[in-house]
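Continuing the batch. This is chain 6 of the set; chains 1 through 5 are on the previous pages. Same settings as before, nothing changed between runs. Recording input and output for traceability.
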Amino acid sequence: MVQTVKSLNAALDTLAGIEPAFAVALQRAGYPPPRVRDRGYATLLRTIIGQQVSVAAAQSIWNKLEAQVGDLTDPATIAAASDEQLRAAGLSRQKVSYARSLAEEVTSGRLDFAQLPEDDEEAIAQLVAIKGIGRWSAEIYLLFAEGRPDIWPAGDLAVQIEIGRILGHDERPAEKLMRDLAEAWRPHRGAAAILAWHHYKVDMDVI
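Output for chain 6:
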C-alpha cells in the first residue's frame, strides 16, 4: 500500500474526530505531506547508515560509499566490498557488520521484502531478527516504505515529545504510555506519527 495525500489526509480527519487535540494541531501546522520511501533493501541499508548520525552526515556517507563501491541498491555490492572500502566511506566497524548482515540476508533469500508477513508485529519480528535492525528501524521501514497505516513508533523521541505537547502533558510520555494512548487511534496510528513529526518541525521553526 502506497501512502497518498488523499489517504493520509483522510486518516488525519478521522483522528481529528476522535481526538480534538489533533484537530487543533492540524489547524496550527497544516496537513503533513506523505512520507514515502522505496520498498526494499536500499531503504533499510539507508536506515542502518543513518543510525545515530544527522541526515546530512548519513547522506554524505551514502555518497562516499556509492563512489567507493558502486550501486548500493544491489546487496552484492556490499558483500563484495572490503572492510577498508566501507570504513573509508565513514561506516563504523559496527555498521560495517550490520550492512554485511543485511546484504547476506537478502542475497541468501532469507529476507524477501515482497514476502514480509501481513501482520505488522510479525513483520517487525522478522526485520528485528536482522543484526543492526531494532524495533524503531523496522517500524520506520514498514511505515514509509510499505505505507502500513497502523504502525506506531512509540519509542521515537520526537513523536513522544510532540504527542505530549499536542495532548497537553506536562512531561514527555514514556513508551508504554504512548502505546496506551494510541490504542484509541487504531487503525490510523501511522498518520498520528506523521502528524507528530510535522508538528514537531513546525514547533522547531517557531522557537
